[in-house]
Amino acid sequence: MLTGAGFDRAALRRADPGWLAAAWERARVLLISPKSATPVATDAAGAGGLALSDASDLPAQGPRRFLGVADGVPYFSLTTEPAGEGWGTLREVGMDLDELQAGLFATAIALEQWHQRHPCCPICGTQTHEADAGWTRKCPNDASVHFPRTDPAVIMLITAGAGGDDLALLGRNPQWAPGRFSTLAGFVEPGESLEAAVAREVFEEVGVQVNDVRYVASQPWPFPASLMLGFTGRLVGDPAIRLDPVEMAEAGWFSRAEVQRAADWVDDGTEPGPGVQLRGVSPRLSISRFLIDRWLAGQLP
Ligand SMILES: [Zn+2]
Q1: CB 42 within 8 A of CB 87
Q2: Quick check: 282 and 182 in contact, CB under 8 A?
Q3: What pTM did the predictor assign?
Q4: 10-residue block means of pLDDT along the chain (301 residues)?
Q5: Rounded to the nearest whole angstrom, what is the distance from the C-alpha of residue 63 to the centroid of ligand 1?
Q6: What is the distance in A from the centroid of ligand 1 to the CA of 131?
């Protein structure tokens, strides 16, 4: 999900105005809202997924960004005020997106978020302007060129024990509903390796030591600019949990049977009875859930 591999970014075309102008005439265009609450135009006809428009049907104004090419078709985004029905969030449309649409969505939203948050030159403070089909901002004062940011974050399924009897460490963020747990996660700090970030975040949030940290997969999460890097890791020593009360409301070690049951409840919308600590895990389109499902299937290192 959101892996962005469904199209060719064709980056060499970004600085080719003649090619871009011709491509726009035959492009399919994803409408992006400047409002993060309803970021994208959806298929109002009810078929699910994104609405893609022909360029000739669209207003001339608004930032126009070149996303890439798939099967010979150029794709752009156009930022415009949402009008009428048919605007939605990732949570609303995510499960309906194919690989191409998910990649277009992630890329367009990431660019929009970056442009909104970086209007000025970080060197001299002058207002910058958008260039290279949306892929840079340039400073008219000192001629510096600025590129879209991506902030690395680690997300990790930590296990304890051996083989099919091992336990998974899941935590609950204070903002989440009681019973709803996820894998632990946190931002990578400047000067830090990914492996060190995994170990540090786990120790800070729940007070346990881990090693054998291994990379599994990644997922862009452009809200506003994260790249989630998924890892596994294994407990070393004492499994006793000491919570950081700011970051974690609760955390625990859960069996495969407990985690499988909570995943099934989330998928089929069942509300479990009282007295169950782990009542839900992350929904299917998240990398957290990908790690959990791979673990449940016995497919993680
Ligand atoms: Zn400047």
Answers
A1: yes
A2: yes
A3: 0.89
A4: 77 96 95 82 71 85 93 94 80 81 90 95 98 98 97 98 89 93 97 98 97 95 92 96 94 96 94 91 91 94 72
A5: 21
A6: 15
